Amino acid sequence: MNIKLLKPAPLSLLLALLLLPAAGCAAAEEARQAPSPTPPLHGGGGLGTTVRPKALVTGLEHPWEMAWLPDGSVLITERPGRLSLVRDGVLDPRPISGVPEVLAQGQGGLLDVAVDPDFERNRFIYLSYAAGERGANGTRVARARFNGQSLSDLEVIYAVPQNKPGAQHFGSRLLWLPDGSLLVSIGDGGNPPLQLEGALIRRQAQNRSSALGKLLRITRDGAPARGNPFATGQGEAPKVWSYGHRNVQGLALDPLNGRVWVSEHGARGGDELNLVEAGANYGWPVVTHSREYSGPPISAAQSAPGLVDPRRVWTPAIAPSGLAIDRGDRYPGWSGNLFAGGLVSRDVRRISLQADGTVASEETIPIGARVRDVRQGPDGYLYVLTDSPDDGQLLRLEPASAPPPSGNR
Questions:
Q1: What is the pTM for the complete model shown?
Q2: Which fold has domain 11-399?
Q3: Residues with catalytic annotation?
């Protein structure tokens, strides 16, 4: 892939960026989470000096996700409802047409984008987004054909059937599995006092017939994928892959061992890194390290039989966003490590793992801006999207001792 630097920005400028709040409910919720980054598990610090973030694209409006096309160009979603294209390192000033109408309020808007594994044949891309109005809305997944300039044949393949109020907790990460099925994260619907069916809406995370607070596994057409753990259940249960989640916004597959990792928001602290298995219950809100925004603990227990404990808990909160696994050769000694973005902590956490998936250590890579997404590109480099209302950026993490990349690998 050949990406050219659009607007050089010194590292000192990037590290000096202030924390820029998101709009609406997102700003209110993230402001209540403690802004101090969690101390590393072992030792600290120094690995942030081994890479330098380099600005490739600037001026994005609340960018949310990036995905590479086979020709090396990059699709970037912007939460207000734009789908942008970076080709040969240059951001096309014309947004891609044909994007569905979105609810661009609070945490809602145009969110994830995923390229069909068979894109060169079928030209499909998939979008997740918030749809509806503030009093009744939900997460949708649509697919459309992309001809390089516009979308056509747009079709909603999945819509959460439970309409919810407010503009929080849409989830919306998309991840292809090797068998061609698609994982979709759906948030729990929002914070108290929001209710659904006469109870706090977050209780839906424990209701397997509801989509809220789940990872769903569906086909390219939106049907339940074969082999799902609750195939004979009622409602949305046949699509459920795992449940008991609050708001998964980091979702990554390790291609070497098939493990699926998620990072998800807690309430006031209690952010989690989880290793996901089919059929497992991750506890929210029955057990959690989170506290109510008003102060008291949300649950009396932080662990219970039959509920899966997180592999890492972040308190104070980092407000986790994108999640990636390095399986390239650009960063010596980092292969197999997880990289978790933080909106509030304004950094990327490098997490080394033991063979069984136990977290061994964690180090901080300072970014100096709200990190919305982290991805490994086809060239082996790690890429970061920073969240801002008017100057979101696409960054590349370059080894400090390595020469700048040139041409295709």
A1: 0.88
A2: Neuraminidase (2.120.10)
A3: 169
